[in-house]
């Protein structure tokens, strides 16, 4: 029960896009993205003190670019506001712009324009919500003497059926650059100052005008002297005005919801305030309790509504026309028999329907016709919402449809050798499977077929009471042989792996050890590996593969001796001989060799103290490779006698070493370095006599540490 206790007409500003579409005013808020139902008019009036012109009012076709256009870019901003005014406000898809930006250097135009929409007020649209935003060019100081009716302006009017303004303090708005509230300043692209007002909302209670026609009219004006422009963005919502009471079935609490579009709300029970905001929750509600909501518009106008708590119990129910043996389109007519409230018949109505069908499609009609994509039992869910309580009821059930073209079977009619295949019927209530001679060999939706029976069989599908039936022919045959291959090496070298890849006519694979369904698997341990494959018919083939692990060639070689010097500089490297193995040696001094045993002579100087020997082996059958490295150490050999007599033997002492040699008196007779040829027994080219000399030898040890050796050398002349 809704009572309008105050007849005050209130109006809240907003020029924007509609959130609500009433049944009788499908484009009041430009919901269709065009001007359907709207009338546009233009006229010209300017008087700059020199020239004066007033043109006739003309009705124009809409849109009338650029003065009356629909806008839909929800990311765009108005350029004259320094891109701060959002052209389409949040929550809206469209809005209309009335008027346009004029460059300063164009001739004075005095453009005036209006948009009008006529509607009949009923209980679906008695609350009118308007949003608007305005942009005005601001007069300069010497032009500020313009009167209000000479300035760029924006006017909102509500007119009665005779075209007269509806008389009410909140029923009209007239804004210009000097009266605009909450104005913002900006600079237009032409460099002139701008004032603008962001989106504002107002509302109008049209309850007193139910059954009558009214006209919503918006007008925008350039200034009369013709030099300043003005324009606005607008949209309108129309909705019922009532308090929705949600107190359904077994609810303990009730929720009351007032119409949207007001600035503030106060809820009272008798004289006690019980809530604020659009909605009010009533804990432990009782039927019969009375609540009142007082609401105020942005313009300061007040109104109120009263409601009585009552429990609402809607019921969803429908009937169908479903069975038709020749229903080739499989369409079903649904007829609604729902009740908005079984407890208070006639006081509520079903506000909305939502049908949800088995194929995922939906409908909001009261009595829809639905085309099903399959035949047989279909789930149907009907949800009805009681108006104005918003209580819901749900009926979730199944219906039967019968469409011969949609009855069939799933499964493969070709079976694997030595096996069977299972076919399953769909689209009917029940089935029989019949041989060519008429013998029924299976009942139910599924049948197993193989070598017997084979050939031509039939599936017969029936409706529930067998009022309708249809027969589907099925040809059963054995699957021909198919290909299963496995590529890849069935061996791998120790420490590595091998990849096996399945191919052929299969659609899926299973490697049993790895439990992998991938086409390829990587194997890194020896053993037996099984593969199962399934082709598109579901037939299975298996293969078993033995994978071997190949040992790496031996590389644990020996070096004799382990330490060499510049006198004893030959080493022997040996590794056990194996079949099908090649041996490649890198001796560490740039030399290479092959074979399982090699001898190599090193040249020892002060520049080297260690040689790294690397053996690389490869199995010529499987390609398995291994490598190992060891080192031989080098140290200087210092003789205690040398005979520089040019006989080619022992003629030079310690070539290639950093060494100093002294005579008995401590005189240095020779100094050498790592590039020297050694001491030839002379001092400044003069042969020294047989005698014993002292040396100090510097070299780098195997561990790269500096070493010094001191001793005596006897020079013998022969």
Structure explained in plain terms:
- This protein is mainly β and 718 residues long.
- The protein has seven domains: 8-239, Galactose-binding domain-like (Jelly Rolls); 252-307, Immunoglobulin-like; 318-401, Immunoglobulins (Immunoglobulin-like, Sandwich); 407-478, Sandwich (Immunoglobulin-like), CATH 2.60.40; 484-547, no CATH class; 558-634, Immunoglobulins (Immunoglobulin-like, Sandwich); 641-715, Immunoglobulin-like (Sandwich).
- The protein is 0% helix and 48% strand.
- It contains no helices and 58 strands.
- The strands form 15 sheets. Strands 2, 3, 4, 7, 9, 10 and 13 form a seven-stranded antiparallel β-sheet that branches.
- Strand 42 (527-535) and strand 43 (540-550) form a beta hairpin.
- It is flat.
- 34% of the residues are buried.
Labels describing this entry:
Jelly Rolls, Immunoglobulin-like, disordered N terminus, 7-stranded antiparallel β-sheet, 48% strand, 718 residues, 7 domains
SSE arrangement:
Blueprint: E1 2-4, E2 38-47, E3 52-54, E4 58-60, E5 68-71, E6 95-98, E7 111-120, E8 127-137, E9 153-159, E10 172-176, E11 184-187, E12 193-205, E13 213-221, E14 230-239, E15 244-246, E16 254-257, E17 264-269, E18 272-276, E19 279-282, E20 290-296, E21 302-308, E22 318-321, E23 331-336, E24 349-357, E25 362-363, E26 369-371, E27 376-387, E28 392-401, E29 408-410, E30 414-415, E31 421-426, E32 430-435, E33 440-443, E34 446-449, E35 455-462, E36 469-478, E37 484-487, E38 491-493, E39 498-504, E40 506-511, E41 520-523, E42 527-535, E43 540-550, E44 558-560, E45 563-564, E46 570-574, E47 581-586, E48 592-594, E49 597-601, E50 610-619, E51 625-634, E52 641-642, E53 658-662, E54 668-672, E55 682-683, E56 686-687, E57 691-700, E58 706-715
Parallel strand pairs: 30-36, 38-43, 45-51, 52-58
Antiparallel strand pairs: 1-21, 2-3, 2-4, 2-7, 5-6, 6-14, 7-13, 8-14, 9-10, 9-13, 11-12, 15-16, 16-19, 17-18, 17-20, 20-21, 22-23, 23-26, 24-25, 24-27, 27-28, 29-31, 31-34, 32-33, 32-35, 35-36, 37-39, 39-41, 40-42, 42-43, 44-46, 46-49, 47-48, 47-50, 50-51, 53-54, 53-57, 55-56, 57-58
């Amino acid at each position: 029960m809704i009572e309008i206790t105050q007849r005050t007409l209130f109006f809240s500003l907003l020029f924007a896009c509609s959130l609500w579409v009433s049944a009788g005013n499908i484009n009041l808020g430009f919901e269709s993205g065009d001007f359907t139902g709207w009338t546009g008019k233009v006229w010209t009036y300017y008087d700059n003190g020199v020239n004066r012109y007033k043109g006739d009012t003309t009705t124009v076709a809409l849109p009338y670019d650029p003065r009356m256009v629909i806008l839909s870019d929800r990311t765009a901003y108005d350029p004259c506001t320094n891109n701060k005014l959002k052209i389409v406000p949040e929550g809206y898809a469209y809005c209309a712009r009335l008027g346009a930006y004029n460059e300063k250097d164009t001739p004075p135009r005095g453009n005036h324009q209006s948009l009008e929409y006529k509607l009949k007020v009923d209980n679906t649209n008695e609350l009118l919500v308007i949003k608007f935003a305005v942009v005005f060019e601001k007069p300069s100081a010497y032009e500020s003497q313009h009167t209000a009716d000479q300035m760029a302006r924006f006017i909102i009017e509500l007119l009665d059926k005779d075209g007269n303004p509806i008389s009410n303090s909140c029923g009209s708005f007239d804004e210009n650059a000097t009266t605009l509230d909450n104005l913002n300043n900006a600079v237009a692209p032409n460099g002139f100052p701008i004032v603008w007002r962001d989106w504002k909302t107002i509302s109008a209670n049209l309850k007193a005008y139910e059954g009558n026609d009214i006209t919503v009219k918006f007008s925008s004006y350039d200034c009369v002297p013709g030099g300043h422009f003005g324009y606005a963005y607008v949209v309108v919502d129309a909705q019922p005005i009532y308090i929705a009471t949600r107190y359904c079935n077994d609810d303990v609490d009730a929720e009351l919801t007032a119409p949207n579009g007001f600035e503030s709300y106060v809820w009272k029970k008798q004289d006690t305030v019980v809530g604020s905001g659009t909605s009010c929750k009533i804990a432990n509600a009782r039927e019969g309790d009375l609540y009142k909501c007082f609401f105020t518009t942005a313009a300061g106008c007040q109104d109120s509504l009263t409601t009585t708590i009552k429990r609402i119990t809607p019921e969803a129910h429908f009937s169908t026309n479903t069975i038709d043996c020749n229903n080739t389109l499989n369409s079903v007519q649904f007829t609604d028999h729902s009740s908005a409230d079984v407890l208070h018949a006639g006081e509520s109505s079903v506000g909305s329907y939502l049908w949800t069908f088995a194929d995922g499609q939906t409908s909001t009609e009261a009595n829809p016709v639905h085309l099903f994509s399959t035949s047989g039992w279909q789930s149907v869910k009907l949800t009805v919402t009681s108006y104005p309580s918003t209580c819901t009821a749900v009926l979730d059930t199944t219906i039967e449809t019968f469409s011969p073209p949609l009855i069939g079977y799933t499964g493969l009619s070709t079976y694997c050798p030595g096996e069977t295949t299972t076919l399953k019927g769909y689209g009917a209530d029940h089935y029989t499977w019949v041989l060519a001679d008429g013998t029924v060999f299976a009942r139910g939706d599924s049948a197993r077929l193989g070598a017997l029976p084979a050939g031509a069989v039939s599936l017969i599908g029936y409706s529930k009471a067998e009022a309708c039936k249809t027969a589907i022919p099925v040809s059963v045959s054995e699957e021909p042989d198919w290909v299963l291959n496995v590529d890849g090496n069935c061996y791998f070298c120790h420490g590595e792996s091998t990849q096996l890849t399945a191919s052929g006519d299969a659609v899926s694979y299973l490697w049993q050890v790895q439990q992998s369904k991938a086409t390829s698997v990587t194997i890194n341990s020896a053993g037996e590996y099984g593969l199962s494959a399934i082709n598109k018919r579901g037939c299975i083939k298996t293969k078993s593969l033995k994978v071997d692990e190949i040992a790496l060639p031996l590389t644990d070689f020996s070096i004799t001796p382990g330490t060499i010097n510049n006198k004893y500089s030959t080493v022997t490297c040996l590794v056990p001989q194996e079949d099908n193995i090649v041996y490649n040696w890198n001796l560490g001094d740039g030399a290479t060799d092959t074979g399982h045993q090699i001898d190599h002579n090193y040249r020892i100087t002060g520049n080297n103290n260690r040689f790294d020997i690397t053996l690389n082996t490869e199995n010529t059958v499987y390609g398995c490779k291994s490598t190992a490295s060891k080192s031989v150490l080098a140290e200087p050999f210092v003789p205690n006698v040398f005979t520089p007599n040019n006989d080619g033997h022992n003629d030079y002492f310690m070539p290639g070493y950093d060494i100093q040699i002294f005579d008995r008196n401590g005189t240095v007779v020779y100094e050498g370095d790592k590039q020297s040829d050694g001491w030839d027994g002379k001092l400044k080219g003069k042969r020294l006599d047989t005698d014993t000399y002292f040396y100090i030898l510097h070299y780098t040890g195997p561990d790269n540490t500096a070493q010094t050796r001191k001793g005596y050398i006897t020079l013998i002349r022969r």
